[in-house]
């Protein structure tokens, strides 16, 4: 097999990291890079790689297209992109909108829709339990410094008022949280996709703003399984990801996303966790 051709949609911090990583990787080949502001690419990306019209990306012959821009990309272009190649949705919070999830699931043929597990430790185990129907509950808690959140609406105002003590910004179904924190809770969205027997309305998300947490992003995952002889199966993991104040994405997430990209593609139609 030849090198897999990768198209990258978005040229922020993660997009820049992936672009260089693809260029350096022995099994990957850069097909194109698209960014909403094309001038940001000029002088950084060779002209032969620059896609100036996303609807014309097919002429670059990508094998997989990676979105690392904004959830709106999947809403507006996801079905079209799945018609061109496999599609790795880097902002799975877009899938909290039921119409978007339904549209992309329907469009995931003959190509596949890939959801990166990101900071979701134990994602494959959660998926296996969901496949068997033994997953009964799932809660993901994210704790960050206030400056690390990029929020909308009432959560933005609530977070701006956090000064000394930690504050729970949200606790409830992941579906309601995704539109308010589209850049911060992709891990929770991935959890809702892995836990497909529960989905966005049953999987719980908790967002905590802690002004004392200056060096880490903390992700806690609590999995509940079946009750056997009055005893409930339960697994809890805690992931401490090094991150500076103001960093929306923890440092370990970049390498994790690259690993998801390397593992993705070629699995056929449908939805795949990677």
TrEMBL record:
Gene Ontology terms: biological process: NAD+ biosynthetic process
Pfam families linked to this entry: Asp_DH_C, NAD_binding_3
Domain Aspartate/homoserine dehydrogenase NAD-binding: 10-113
SUPFAM superfamilies for the chain: Glyceraldehyde-3-phosphate dehydrogenase-like, C-terminal domain (SSF55347), NAD(P)-binding Rossmann-fold domains (SSF51735)
Aspartate dehydrogenase domain boundaries: 165-253
Signal peptide extent: none
InterPro entries for this protein: Asp/hSer_DH_NAD-bd, Asp_DH, NAD(P)-bd_dom_sf
GO molecular function, one term: NADP binding
Similarity comment: family membership: Belongs to the L-aspartate dehydrogenase family.
Protein name: Aspartate dehydrogenase domain-containing protein
Organism placement in taxonomy: Eukaryota, Metazoa, Ecdysozoa, Arthropoda, Crustacea
């Amino acid at each position: 097999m030849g090198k897999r051709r990768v198209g990258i949609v978005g040229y922020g911090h993660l997009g820049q990291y992936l672009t260089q990583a693809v260029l350096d990787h022995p099994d990957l080949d850069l097909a194109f890079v698209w960014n909403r502001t094309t001038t940001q690419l000029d002088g950084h990306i060779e002209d032969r790689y620059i896609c100036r019209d996303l609807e014309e990306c097919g002429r670059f012959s990508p094998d997989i297209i990676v979105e690392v821009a904004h959830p709106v990309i999947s809403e507006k272009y996801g079905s079209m992109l799945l018609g061109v190649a496999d599609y790795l949705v880097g902002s799975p919070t877009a899938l909290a909108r039921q119409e978007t999830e339904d549209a992309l699931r329907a469009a995931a043929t003959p190509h596949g829709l890939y959801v990166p597990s990101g900071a979701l430790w134990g994602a494959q185990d959660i998926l296996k339990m969901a496949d068997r129907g033994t997953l009964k509950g799932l809660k993901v808690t994210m704790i960050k410094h206030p400056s690390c959140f990029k929020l909308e609406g009432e959560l933005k105002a609530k977070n701006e008022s956090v000064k000394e003590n930690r504050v729970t910004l949200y606790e409830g179904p992941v579906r309601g949280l995704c539109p308010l924190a589209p850049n911060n809770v992709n891990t929770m969205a991935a959890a809702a996709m892995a836990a497909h027997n529960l989905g966005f309305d049953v999987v719980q998300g908790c967002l905590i703003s802690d002004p004392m947490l200056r060096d880490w992003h903390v992700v806690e995952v609590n999995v509940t399984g079946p009750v056997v002889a009055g005893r409930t199966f339960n697994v809890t993991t805690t992931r401490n990801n090094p991150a500076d104040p103001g960093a929306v994405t923890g440092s370990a997430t970049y390498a994790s996303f690259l690993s998801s990209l390397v593992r993705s593609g070629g699995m056929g139609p449908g939805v795949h966790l990677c």
